[in-house]
Amino acid sequence: MTDKIAVKSAEDVAAAFGEAVQPDSRPGYAGYIVRPERLVAFAQALRDEAGYDFLTSVTGVDYLPEGKMEVVYHTFRTSGGQVLAYKVQVPRDDARVPTLYPIYPGVDLQEREAWDLLGIRFEGHPDLRRVLTWEGFYGHPLRKDWHEPYFEEEGKPFKNRWPDGRVYRIEDKVPYHHNVQFPPDFSIEGWVPEGDAAVYAGLGKVEGGNGDGHGLETDQVVVNLGPQHPSTHGVFRMVVSLDGETITGLKPVMGYLHRNHEKIGERNTYLMNMPFTDRLDYFSSMSNNFGYALAVEKLMGIKPPERAEYIRVMMAELTRLSNHLAAIGFLLNDLGAYFTPVLYALAERELIIDVFEAVSGSRMMCNYFRFGGLARDLPEGTLERVRELVFERLPRSIDELDRYLTDNEIVRVRGIDVGVLTAEKAIAYSAVGPVLRASGVPYDIRKADPYSIYDRLDFDVAVRYNGDVYDRYLVRMDEMRQSVRILQQVVKDIPGGEIQTGKAPYQVRVPAGEAYGRVDGPKGELGYYVVSNGKPNPWRYHVRAPSFINLTALSELCRGNKVADCVVILGSIDIVLGEVDR
Fold first, then answer.
1. Taking the alpha carbons of 330, 331, 332, 333 in that order, is the dihedral positive or negative?
2. CA 196/CA 448 separation, integer angstroms
3. 3-class SS of residue 531
4. Is 213 exposed, middle or buried (0-12, 13-18, 19+ CB in 10 A)?
5. In angstroms, rounded to a whole number, what is the distance separating the alpha carbons of residues 110 and 546?
6. pLDDT tens string for the chain (582 positions)?
7. Separation between Cα atoms, residue 79 and residue 97, nearest integer Å
8. How many of the other CB atoms lie within 10 Å of CB of 67?
9. Which end of the chain is more exposed for a tag (fewer CB within 10 A), N or C?
10. Rounded to two decimals, what is the model's pTM?
11. Rg for the chain (alpha carbons), in Å?
């Protein structure tokens, strides 16, 4: 967290730039519009003079009818307060924006994503390659004029399904009978993946030094961990440069599970996207619903009833418990305690998932939140089941895990001083959630910028100060205890009444404008940037995915450690590939 005192407001900083920085005066929009040539200077002034030290989200938006691309930056102070947005607009046929990488290294993967999916070139970026699609991919798929081979219509419901009902298989109507197309004159014969060449080129030979510095001759090699490897927690690949067994460089390679979640989200109606968010971090569907509901409710100008707010927080904190139990269990797998700890953890997680099934009808893909409320009230007996869990079962189970694991010699030796991320670097790399708080930054959105009823609840921000694997484990253990504390208050104080504002519609009217809704989910800040043009489908639907952005620091965390440690370091970040790749 920055040691500087914020001596200026954002308004004062913007005023100093005169005509180059102007308030965004579009109806339903907020923040500032910055001229591209002044972007770097404005961002640095906001950080150094006004204390906006954390750049959390970078979003590209294609305004095709206006012939422009817009890049939206969301930033905040780690000392607390609301998010500030500023934007840059450039012609879409020559979309070039200065990179903010030298000021905020955490934009690395996000700028690459905007280049990959929208074709916005960030000048000065040190490694501007595609990140979610492969190098042979044709075009930039989030552009509004890009259509895939399976393209039918811009928005759902498709007319061949409703109301006409003339259903056909789109794969029968395309040349390859698959959703693939190739650039003109492209031939697979003799093709070498450009992406791999660029990855390996970025991991050049390290000159000087022999292994541990004691004269032992070592070889420098490049090793691929994944994508088909159990230690990578899914189809994720780490290209690791080794000097002996010491990591000298690492490049994360992702996108194997990419299905263009955001393009599909912009074709869906607003309500269709609610179950679609379940498929992001599929361990945390209730939190996914929560963030999306907040964003759309901001646009609609509505709030859920009191009882619905309590149930939402109940589901969010049960989700945090469920996620952290699994995360700690699988981290112990990565440490070599094969499946015994994780089975203890999963036994408790199953009891929480029983509650999700009771209230939503599904154990993982819950689709439970609605704009202005919830899909249904708590079934009879569910509140009593939750009360027993949070007052009796879960506190004992957390203590049991703590007793078995925290002072275990192997956990301590493999965790302490391994994968260290300092507070300054955690902020610079836009790390969030337990990764940020384990580095000594006590930032939690539930306290710093409260949403729902969190401002009424008594709980502490879990924080540790060494920034290593062991502290990331301890923060999750601390957070589980705080979640139990929150749940005990919710169960005690939950009121009766309605669980939906007005009648639950099948189609919602969303006024034109923009909104950024965020929650502090189990993996950190999960944000949704939604732009409405007043029509049934969102014009822009962007997910600020914590699993994806937390990987920005992976190379920094692993460099200098042993190759066996990078598996443990990755496990301590706690990623889910559905959210990474989207």
1. positive
2. 41
3. strand
4. exposed
5. 11
6. 445 454 688 888 888 888 999 999 999 999 999 999 999 999 999 999 998 999 999 999 999 999 999 999 999 999 888 989 999 999 999 999 999 999 999 999 999 999 999 999 999 999 888 889 887 788 899 999 888 777 777 777 777 666 666 777 777 777 666 777 766 666 666 666 666 666 666 665 544 444 454 555 667 888 888 787 777 777 888 888 888 888 888 888 888 889 889 999 999 899 999 998 998 888 899 999 999 999 999 999 999 999 999 999 999 999 999 999 999 998 998 888 878 888 999 999 999 999 999 999 888 898 999 999 999 999 999 999 999 999 999 999 999 999 999 999 889 988 899 989 999 999 999 999 999 999 999 999 999 999 999 999 999 999 999 999 999 999 999 999 999 999 999 999 999 999 888 887 778 889 999 999 999 999 999 999 999 999 989 999 999 999 999 999 998 898 888 888 988 999 999 898 888 988
7. 29
8. 9
9. N
10. 0.89
11. 24
Cis (ω within 30 of 0) for the bond into 157?
A: yes
**Nearest one of 81, 48, 57, 44 to 443, comparing CA atoms:** 81
Token representation of residue 149: 């081979």
Q: Compute, in degrees rounded to 10, the torsion defined by CA atoms 3, 552, 109, 271.
A: -90
| DSSP SS3 for 372 | coil
Amino acid occupying residue 84: L
| Position 137, amino acid | F
Q: How far is CA 7 from CA 44, 403, 424, 449, in A?
A: 14, 46, 20, 20
Map tokens 């499946």 to a residue. 339
Beta carbons of 32 and 86 less than 8 angstroms apart? yes
CA-nearest of 140, 137, 150 to 176 is 150
For the chain, how far is it from start to end, CA to CA, in angstroms?
30
